[in-house]
Design brief:
- The protein has one helix at 36-49; strands spanning 2-8, 15-20, 23-27, 56-60, 66-71.
- By secondary structure, the protein is of the alpha+beta class.
- It has a single domain, classed as YggU-like (Conserved Hypothetical Protein Mth637, Chain: A), CATH 3.30.1200.
- A hairpin with a 5-residue loop joins β4 (56-60) and β5 (66-71).
- The chain is globular, with a radius of gyration of 11 Å.
- It starts with a strand and ends with a strand.
Length: 73
């Protein structure tokens, strides 16, 4: 399954909001430096879907706030 995620970094609270069936908005505390925000986002998505982190990967948008993720359920 592929999902589209809009990421806001350097926030006070971390949360995931489901916008539609395949679109999410995520807020993470980490800054977009040294891949820290992407790593945290993968952790949060894995936790949200109840799967391990190795089943979540970025397909497109490594350096962009709009990303496409592959989720293996």
């Amino acid at each position: 399954m592929h999902i589209k995620v809009k990421v806001s970094t350097d926030q006070n609270k971390e949360k995931i909001e489901k916008i539609s069936e395949d679109r999410f908005e995520c807020f993470v505390k980490e800054k977009p430096e040294n891949n820290m925000a992407n790593k945290r986002l993968i952790e949060l998505l894995a936790q949200y879907f109840g799967i391990t982190e190795n089943k979540v990967r970025i397909v497109k948008g490594h350096h962009s706030p709009s990303k496409i993720f592959s989720i293996e359920i």
